[in-house]
C-alpha cells in the first residue's frame, strides 16, 4: 500500500490452473508444439513442449489473457497498476493441482516469470480455476484456511457452495443445485416421468444427480436406473451401462456428464448403435461443438438440455484468432461455441480487478483482505451484464434450454428453445419459446400411461410410484383431473355421471301425477269418488223405499260421505310432498277411515239390536236408537281426532329427502315424525275394523232379507286382508312405491266397502224393483 501511495507501480499476480498440458504464448507468438514426455516438460519449462494440446483449455487461457490485457490498458480500472499472472498445468490430476497451489502458498515458484512481468517476488492474490469440480474442491480445501480467493469459471458442483468447507471459493458459473432442479422441472414440463440417468462418477456428477433425484421425486418423476461412469473406467463398465440402457423401458436418458466422460462413452454408444433415445443434457456438454462433431451416428440428435446463456465479448474473438499459426488453420481453435465459458473467465478476472481497485482506493483503515472485497463487489461489464456473488459465492442462476436440431442439409444447430430462471417460482421457471420448434413428435417415456379423469391411481405393489394402475372411481365418486390419486365423493344431493368425471344433481323422485302409476291411481281415486256420488244419488232418489229405510238411511248417507272422503284423501299422497300435504295426508286418511268404520260398526250394531228387539220381553232398541248411533259414530271419530291432534302437536309428519333407498336418486317423501303416532292411527283403525268384523260375523246368520250383516262381514274381510298385507308391503317398498302401496290399500279397502255394502242394494233398486218392498224385506211372499 505504501508503494502505491508513492505513485509507484505495484504488480499483482493471478494464478491460473488448467487441467491439461499446453503452451502459453503471447498472442503475437507462434505456437510450436512438440510431443515430448511430461518429465521433459517439467525439466525444461521454458520450451514450448507438451504431451498433448487441448484447444479448449487453451481458449480459456486466452480469455484470461485478453481480460488482463484490457485491464492493464485501462485508465479507469487500476490505473498505474499492472496485473501479472502465472499459469500452471494440472495435467488432469487432482494431486498436481493441489501441489501447484500449495507450492505458491509457500512462496516458491514452480516456474519463473519473465523479468518484466513482476519486479517483486511473486505475490498471488487470487487463484483462477479449476475447470472441473473435483480439482476445484481439492484446491479450495487447501487454500481456504489462508483466505486465498479461488474463482472458477466452470466448476458447477453444488457442494462448492458450502462455505464451511470452502470459505474462499467463488465462481462465475451457476451452481449445479439450480441446474439439477432446472433439469428436473424441464423433464416434468415435457411430461416424462419414467427416465434413466447416466452420471460422471465425480463430485460434478454425483452431487448433481443427487439433487436432481431429490427434486425429481418431489415432482413425481421416477428413475428406472442411475449408473455412474468415469473416463478411466474399463471397457466392460461401458458395456454394462449400454446393457442397462437397452434393457430398460424408459426412452429418456438424463446425462449428467462432463464432456470428457461423454467423449469416451459416445464412441461406444456409436459402435453399439444406441439410437432411439431422448437425451437430456447439462451445460457440461449441451453446447459443446466437439461433442457434436464426434456424434457421427447421430446418437444425440434431438437432445435437449441446459446451457449457459449465449454471450459476446467484443474483441475476444479477434484476440484469439490472432495467435499464429492458428489464425490460418482449420482446427478446433476457431470454434467459438464455448464463448459463454470464455465470458465466465473474463468476468472472473474483472471481479478481481474491481476488488483490487476498491482496496487501492480506500484509506489506511480499509480492510485489505481481497476475499471480503470480492464477496461484495457488484459491477457491470462492458457488455452490460451484472457481476456479483451471493452469500454462497454463486452468481445468479439463469440457463438457456438448448435443443440439438439437424437441418435438411445435415448441419447440427444448437437452437435456443426456452429459458430457465431460478429466481422465478417453480411453476414459472421453465419458459419455452415454442414446443413446435423442439420435436416433430414429443417422445413418451412413462412407466404407466396417465390416468384419465374418472379414474384414480393405485400403485403397483413393489414398484416405484410412477408405476400404477388406473382404477375407475366407484359410484358416487369422481375425479375431474388427470392422474388423480384419489376419487372425491360427491355431495349428498349429487351423484357421479356415467364417466365419473363430474357430480350431477340427483334426480328428485316422488309419486307424480304425470307418471303412469300416479295417473292410474289418480284415475282410480276419481272413479271411486264418482261411483260413490252415483250411489248416493241413487240412494237419495230411492230414499223412501223400504230397502233404503230398512238399512238405516242416515248411517248409509254418512257412510257414503266418508267413503267419498276416503277416495279423495288418497290424492293427498300424490305430488311433491310439502309441509301441509304431509300433515294432511295421514290425518285425513286416519279420520275419514275411522268415520267410515264407525258408520259400518253402527249399522252392524243396529242389525244385532233389531233382532234382539224382536224377541219377547226385549226392548233393546231404546238403548241404540238414532241418537245413540250418532253419538257412537261421533265418539269413535273423536278419539281418532284426538290421536291426530296429539301426533301433530308432538312430532308431526314433515317433508324429507331420503338418500338411502337409491344411490343416484333423492326420494322426496313424508317422514312420519312420530312413528308412534302413525301406528296409533293405524292401530285404532284396525281395532275398530276387528270389532266391526266380529259384530258382523255374529249377525251373519240372522233371518230376513234386509239383513246386510253378511255383506258387512265380507267387506270387513277384504278390509282386514288389505291392511294386514299392507304392513309388510309398506315397510319393504322403496321410495315412491311405499306411497303407492298406501294409496292402493286406501282405494282397495274403500272399494271393498262400497261394492260389498251398497252395490247389492243398487242392483235391487235399479234392476229388481219388485224386491224393494216391505213384505220382501220381512221375508214374506217374496217373488221368485
TrEMBL record:
Keywords: Cell membrane, G-protein coupled receptor, Glycoprotein, Membrane, Receptor, Signal, Transducer, Transmembrane, Transmembrane helix. One of its GO terms (molecular function) is G protein-coupled receptor activity. One of its GO terms (cellular component) is plasma membrane. Residues 517-781 form the G-protein coupled receptors family 3 profile domain. InterPro entries: ANF_lig-bd_rcpt (IPR001828), GPCR_3 (IPR000337), GPCR_3_9-Cys_dom (IPR011500), GPCR_3_9-Cys_sf (IPR038550), GPCR_3_C (IPR017978), GPCR_3_Ca_sens_rcpt-rel (IPR000068), GPCR_3_CS (IPR017979), GPCR_3_vmron_rcpt_2 (IPR004073). Its main location: membrane. Gene3D superfamilies: 3.40.50.2300, GPCR, family 3, nine cysteines domain. It is a multi-pass membrane protein. CDD domains: 7tmC_V2R_pheromone. It is found in: Cell membrane. The chain crosses the membrane at residues 520-542, 554-575, 587-611, 631-650, 678-699, 711-731, 743-767. Belongs to the G-protein coupled receptor 3 family. This is Extracellular calcium-sensing receptor-like. It comes from Poecilia latipinna (sailfin molly). The lineage of its organism: Eukaryota, Metazoa, Chordata, Craniata, Vertebrata.
Amino acid at each position: 500500500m505504501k508503494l502505491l501511495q508513492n505513485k509507484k507501480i505495484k504488480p499483482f499476480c493471478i494464478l491460473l490452473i488448467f487441467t491439461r498440458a499446453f503452451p502459453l504464448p503471447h498472442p503475437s507468438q507462434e505456437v510450436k508444439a512438440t510431443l515430448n514426455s511430461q518429465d521433459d516438460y517439467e525439466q525444461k519449462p521454458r520450451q514450448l513442449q507438451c504431451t498433448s494440446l487441448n484447444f479448449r483449455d487453451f481458449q480459456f487461457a486466452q480469455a484470461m489473457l485478453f481480460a488482463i490485457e484490457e485491464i492493464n490498458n485501462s485508465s479507469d480500472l487500476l490505473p498505474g497498476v499492472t496485473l501479472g499472472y502465472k499459469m500452471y498445468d494440472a495435467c488432469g490430476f487432482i494431486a498436481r493441482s493441489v501441489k501447484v497451489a500449495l507450492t505458491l502458498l509457500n512462496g516458491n515458484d514452480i516456474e519463473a516469470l519473465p523479468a518484466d512481468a513482476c519486479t517483486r517476488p511473486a505475490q498471488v492474490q487470487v487463484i483462477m480455476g479449476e475447470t472441473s469440480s473435483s480439482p476445484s474442491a481439492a484446491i479450495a480445501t487447501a487454500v481456504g484456511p489462508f483466505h486465498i480467493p479461488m474463482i472458477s469459471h466452470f466448476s458447477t458442483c453444488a457442494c462448492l457452495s458450502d462455505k464451511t468447507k470452502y470459505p474462499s471459493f467463488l465462481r462465475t458459473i451457476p451452481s449445479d443445485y439450480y441446474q439439477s432442479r432446472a433439469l428436473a422441472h424441464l423433464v416434468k414440463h415435457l411430461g416424462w416421468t419414467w427416465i434413466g440417468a447416466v452420471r460422471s462418477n465425480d463430485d460434478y456428477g454425483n452431487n448433481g444427480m443427487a439433487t436432481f433425484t431429490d427434486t425429481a421425486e418431489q415432482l413425481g418423476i421416477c428413475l428406472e436406473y442411475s449408473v455412474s461412469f468415469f473416463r478411466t473406467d474399463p471397457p466392460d463398465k461401458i458395456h454394462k451401462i449400454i446393457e442397462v440402457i437397452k434393457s430398460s423401458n424408459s426412452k429418456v436418458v438424463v446425462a449428467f456428464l462432463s464432456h470428457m466422460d461423454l467423449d469416451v462413452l459416445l464412441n461406444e454408444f456409436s459402435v453399439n448403435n444406441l439410437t432411439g433415445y431422448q437425451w437430456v443434457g447439462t451445460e457440461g456438454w449441451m453446447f459443446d461443438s466437439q461433442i457434436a462433431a464426434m456424434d457421427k451416428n447421430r446418437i444425440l440428435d434431438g437432445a435437449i438440455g441446459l446451457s449457459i446463456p449465449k454471450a459476446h465479448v467484443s474483441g475476444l474473438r479477434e484476440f484469439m484468432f490472432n495467435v499464429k499459426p492458428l489464425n490460418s488453420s482449420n482446427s478446433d481453435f476457431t470454434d467459438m461455441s464455448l464463448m459463454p465459458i470464455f465470458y465466465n473467465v473474463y468476468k472472473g478476472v474483472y471481479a478481481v480487478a474491481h476488488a483490487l481497485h476498491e482496496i487501492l482506493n480506500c484509506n489506511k483503515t480499509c480492510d485489505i483482505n481481497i476475499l471480503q472485497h470480492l464477496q461484495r463487489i457488484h459491477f457491470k461489464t462492458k457488455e452490460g451484464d451484472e457481476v456479483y456473488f451471493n452469500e454462497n459465492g454463486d452468481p445468479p442462476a439463469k440457463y438457456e434450454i438448448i435443443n440439438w436440431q439437424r437441418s435438411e442439409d445435415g448441419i447440427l444447430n444448437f437452437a435456443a428453445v426456452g429459458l430457465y430462471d431460478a429466481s422465478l417460482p417453480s411453476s414459472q421457471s421453465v419458459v419455452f419459446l415454442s414446443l413446435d420448434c423442439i420435436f416433430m413428435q414429443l417422445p413418451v417415456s412413462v412407466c404407466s400411461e396417465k390416468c384419465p379423469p374418472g379414474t384414480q391411481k393405485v400403485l403397483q405393489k413393489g414398484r416405484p410410484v410412477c408405476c400404477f394402475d388406473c382404477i375407475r372411481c366407484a359410484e358416487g365418486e369422481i375425479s375431474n383431473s388427470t392422474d388423480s390419486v384419489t376419487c372425491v365423493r360427491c355431495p349428498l344431493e349429487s351423484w357421479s355421471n356415467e364417466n365419473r368425471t363430474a357430480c350431477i344433481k340427483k334426480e328428485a323422485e316422488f309419486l307424480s301425477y304425470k307418471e303412469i302409476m300416479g295417473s292410474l291411481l289418480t284415475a282410480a281415486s276419481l272413479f271411486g269418488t264418482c261411483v260413490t256420488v252415483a250411489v248416493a244419488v241413487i240412494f237419495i232418489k230411492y230414499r223412501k223405499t223400504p230397502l233404503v229405510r230398512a238399512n238405516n238411511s242416515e248411517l248409509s248417507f254418512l257412510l257414503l260421505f266418508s267413503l267419498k272422503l276416503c277416495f279423495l284423501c288418497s290424492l293427498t299422497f300424490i305430488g311433491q310432498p310439502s309441509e301441509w300435504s304431509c300433515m294432511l295426508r295421514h290425518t285425513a286418511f286416519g279420520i275419514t277411515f275411522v268415520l267410515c268404520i264407525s258408520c259400518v260398526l253402527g249399522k252392524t250394531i243396529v242389525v244385532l239390536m233389531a233382532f234382539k228387539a224382536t224377541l219377547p220381553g226385549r226392548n233393546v232398541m231404546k238403548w241404540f236408537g238414532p241418537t245413540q248411533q250418532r253419538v257412537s259414530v261421533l265418539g269413535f271419530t273423536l278419539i281418532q281426532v284426538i290421536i291426530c291432534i296429539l301426533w301433530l302437536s308432538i312430532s308431526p309428519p314433515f317433508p324429507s329427502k331420503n338418500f338411502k333407498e337409491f344411490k343416484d336418486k333423492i326420494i322426496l317423501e313424508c317422514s312420519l315424525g312420530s312413528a308412534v303416532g302413525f301406528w296409533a292411527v293405524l292401530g285404532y283403525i284396525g281395532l275398530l275394523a276387528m270389532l266391526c268384523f266380529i259384530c258382523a260375523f255374529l249377525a251373519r246368520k240372522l233371518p230376513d232379507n234386509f239383513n246386510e250383516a253378511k255383506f258387512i262381514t265380507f267387506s270387513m274381510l277384504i278390509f282386514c286382508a288389505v291392511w294386514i298385507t299392507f304392513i309388510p308391503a309398506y315397510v319393504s317398498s322403496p321410495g315412491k312405491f311405499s306411497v303407492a302401496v298406501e294409496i292402493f290399500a286406501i282405494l282397495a279397502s274403500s272399494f271393498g266397502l262400497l261394492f260389498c255394502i251398497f252395490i247389492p242394494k243398487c242392483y235391487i233398486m235399479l234392476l229388481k224393483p219388485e224386491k224393494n218392498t216391505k213384505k220382501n224385506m220381512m221375508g214374506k211372499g217374496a217373488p221368485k
